[in-house]
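Key result, reporting period 2: structure in, sequence out.
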């Protein structure tokens, strides 16, 4: 009886395998014919296909995905259904570019621009009078803290005590906020007391002196554990700061701890159920995700714990959580801010950037953190940052490009508010012109191949030695990543070369490109996500849609809040 059952199972398996192979052959043959004109005409934005998985279904899928059946049948099918094999059907003649480093170009009128250091010094001067009280809610920004310190209304030590109380309260709330996952009272107070003494002696180090700051757990910060969202990395306290951490310390910032993140940066929701982290909650609505992977950084700023946080962005990981939490997120140009001391998950797509309460704070943080670092070769030849016209509300002379076909690939509520924001920018004097960004689906696929292949390479040893300590979603993502070949990776970088050339042509006529920040608002947290996490590829596709172009080609991206949905969730614009 048992032998008959085994034979029956084998027979069914073989039948399913032959059905699968025939299905793949038909689909692949049809798509090869359809793809021949893709490089000229293809602009369709497809949603990815995969059911939302959590709980037992995710456990089963993670197990199957990493089995022989999963690697030879299930994952290749998922790859084809989501068109990740698109580049295999194309012939791309351009030589591959493996790092999107762009040689600096001389700016027009540089001699007339005021140096950033001079502008920052002016910002450190006390304002004649505090800004008028707003009619509604307003975040306290970096200059608000600095003005309070200089006037003596507050000291960094007092602010640090308040933050410590807030951190304690946030963990007692139901549900816990889970923004800062590692912090130390003594370290916070020691930095704050040193800053208080400097203000007392009228010798602040910079505009960031005494400013509360947190950094994503992917970035090394002494003396915390460099876990990068996992339960197995960082078994000993860190003994060396990352370059950005060191620059923040040299500027006098008060580091209040390291922030939560999606495990190993492998997702865009911020769902991380492991024992050291838990799921960061969106301060706008705790029943919704923050976005990821820099989930805790955005939530900390949105919750008012600090006006500045740092994140890393390989696929929207600064900009997505900033958009979902209603704050400002800046992904710098590739190589602008040193990545030294950050876990090297993806070396060609990742840029560091600040998450702040306003654009001015993002510009100030960016100008202090950007600059060459001998330990980070990709940014050695960068020009000096520019803060020219930072205080000017007049947008005359700026040309903004909008690809309306691309921009309309989002929820109706988002599109409505986005259109109003574009009209407002036109009202401020900007010229808005229609543009067409070619080969959008190829760009999306190329980015997925680049970031997932590089992450699979970086995590090869972890996958072999710590597989059962990884979250289920991470296991399924790496199972899919293992489907990409060296040829896929080269084709993706050929597409990168091609897309960078297209962008150079577009930027010869416009100053920047506008899109919605995300195609959806912050997704809801399901009860079944809390224990084992979730895998939600369609939501990932919608959240990452407008992010991938910047990560593949290295161009910067700035997300700002522009409104709210009918459910009260933030909506953002990207430029």
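The corresponding designed sequence is given below.
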């Amino acid at each position: 009886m048992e032998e008959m059952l085994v034979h029956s199972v084998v027979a069914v398996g073989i039948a399913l395998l032959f059905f699968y192979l025939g299905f793949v052959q038909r689909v692949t043959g049809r798509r090869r014919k359809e793809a021949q004109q893709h490089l000229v005409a293809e602009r369709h934005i497809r949603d990815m296909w995969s059911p939302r998985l959590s709980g037992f279904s995710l456990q089963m899928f993670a197990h199957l995905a990493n089995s022989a059946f999963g690697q030879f049948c299930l994952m290749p099918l998922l790859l084809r259904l989501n068109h990740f094999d698109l580049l295999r059907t194309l012939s791309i003649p351009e030589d591959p570019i493996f790092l999107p480093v762009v040689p600096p170009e001389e700016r027009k009128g540089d001699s007339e621009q005021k140096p950033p250091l001079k502008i920052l010094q002016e910002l450190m001067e006390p304002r004649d009078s505090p800004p008028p009280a707003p009619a509604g809610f307003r975040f306290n920004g970096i200059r608000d803290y600095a003005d309070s310190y200089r006037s003596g209304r507050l000291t960094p030590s007092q602010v640090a005590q308040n933050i410590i109380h807030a951190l304690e309260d946030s963990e007692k709330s139901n549900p816990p906020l889970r923004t800062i996952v590692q912090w130390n009272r003594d370290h916070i107070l020691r930095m704050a007391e040193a800053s208080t003494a400097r203000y007392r002696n009228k010798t602040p180090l910079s505009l960031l002196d005494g400013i509360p700051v947190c950094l994503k757990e992917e970035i090394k910060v002494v003396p915390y554990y460099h876990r990068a969202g996992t339960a197995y990395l960082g078994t000993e306290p860190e003994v060396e700061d990352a370059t950005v951490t060191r620059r923040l310390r040299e500027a006098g910032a008060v580091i209040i701890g390291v922030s939560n993140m999606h495990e190993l940066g492998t997702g865009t929701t911020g769902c991380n159920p492991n024992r050291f982290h838990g799921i960061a909650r969106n301060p706008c609505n705790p029943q919704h995700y923050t976005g990821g992977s820099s989930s805790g950084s955005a939530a900390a700023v949105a919750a008012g714990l600090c006006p500045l946080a740092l994140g890393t962005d390989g696929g929207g990981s600064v900009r997505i959580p900033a958009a979902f939490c209603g704050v400002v997120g800046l992904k710098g140009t590739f190589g602008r801010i040193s990545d030294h001391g950050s876990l090297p998950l993806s070396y060609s797509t990742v840029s560091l950037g600040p998450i702040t309460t306003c654009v001015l704070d993002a510009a100030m943080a960016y100008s202090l953190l950007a600059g060459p670092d001998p330990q980070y070769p990709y940014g050695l030849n960068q020009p000096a940052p520019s803060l020219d016209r930072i205080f000017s509300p007049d947008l005359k002379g700026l040309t903004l490009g909008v690809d309306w076909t691309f921009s309309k690939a989002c929820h109706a509520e988002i599109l409505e508010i986005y259109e109003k924001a574009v009209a407002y920018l036109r009202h401020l004097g900007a010229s808005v012109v229609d543009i067409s960004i070619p080969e959008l689906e190829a760009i999306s696929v190329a980015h997925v191949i680049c970031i997932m292949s590089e992450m699979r390479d970086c995590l090869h040893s972890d996958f072999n030695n710590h597989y059962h300590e990884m979250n289920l979603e991470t296991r399924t993502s790496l199972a899919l990543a293992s489907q990409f070949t060296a040829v896929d990776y080269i084709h993706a970088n050929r597409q990168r070369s091609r897309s960078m050339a297209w962008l150079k042509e577009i930027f010869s006529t416009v100053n920047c490109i506008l899109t919605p920040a995300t195609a959806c608002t912050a997704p809801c947290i399901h009860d079944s996500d809390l224990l084992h996490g979730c895998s939600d590829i369609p939501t990932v596709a919608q959240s990452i849609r407008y992010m991938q172009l910047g990560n593949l080609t290295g161009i910067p991206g700035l997300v700002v809040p522009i409104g709210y949905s009918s459910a009260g969730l933030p909506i953002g614009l990207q430029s």
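The radius of gyration is 24 Å. Confidence is low (pLDDT under 50) at residues 1-42. This case is discussed further under Risks and Mitigation.
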